[in-house]
Amino acid sequence: MAAGTSLEAALEAKLRSLDREFAHLRASTVSIGWCKEYWWHAGTNGLSFDDWKQVDAIYRSRALDLPGTGHAMVPYIDMANHASGDETIALYDTDSDGNAVLVLRGGKTLKPNDEVTITYGDEKGACEMLFSYGFIEDTMTSARELFLDLDIPDDDPLKVAK
């Protein structure tokens, strides 16, 4: 799907990074008894590189950059959908005890059955949204950063115009 787009290089770099992480995980755990038995033993359906990609995808799609804490997985907050700008209903924050909290933005109200939305990052461009979250906002008027590298056949009479 990313072939021929500006996401191709980012995807290839991500896969190389995951491959290095997986190799490091294996090297660091192969001598630990239970890891060797359950993850790396040839006779079991242990961990594979595809499993590692799934772990990364689950983490990346659920992790938040929680103010004052850093990267965290916060049950329920991580399930809120994205809305940008004035459409964002709530913000996540950290209270004085270090707990993750979800607070309504100033001037916002909720009625029963209203959707609670957070922003995944209003400043993120089309490529980052597509790469990180799998979608481009329908309100985005331009995908300035998404490029397609198309090979136009030489015998196409409209090649010059394209």
Instruction: Summarize the amount of helix as a percent range.
Output: 25-40%
Please state the structural category: alpha+beta
Radius of gyration: 21 Å
Total helical elements: 4
How many beta-strand segments? 6
- Give the SSE order as H and E letters: HHHEEEEEEH
Detail the poorly predicted runs.
none
What general form does the structure show? flat
How far the N terminus sits from the C terminus, by CA atoms, comes to 22 Å
Beta strand %: 5-15%
Could you report the average pLDDT, rounded to the nearest whole number? 83
**Strand neighbour order, sheet with most strands:** 1-2
Main beta sheet: strand number and arrangement? 2 strands, antiparallel
Describe this structure in a few short sentences.
This protein has 162 residues and is of the alpha+beta class. It is built from 4 helices and 6 strands. The chain has helices at residues 7-29, 33-40, 49-62, 126-133; strands spanning 63-66, 70-73, 81-82, 90-94, 100-104, 117-118.
Describe this structure in words.
- With 162 residues, this protein is α+β, with helices and mostly antiparallel strands.
- The chain has 4 helices and 6 strands; from the N terminus they run αααββββββα.
- Helix content is 33%, strand content 14%.
- Strand 1 and strand 2 form a beta hairpin.
- The longest helix is centred in the first third of the chain and has 23 residues, at 7-29.
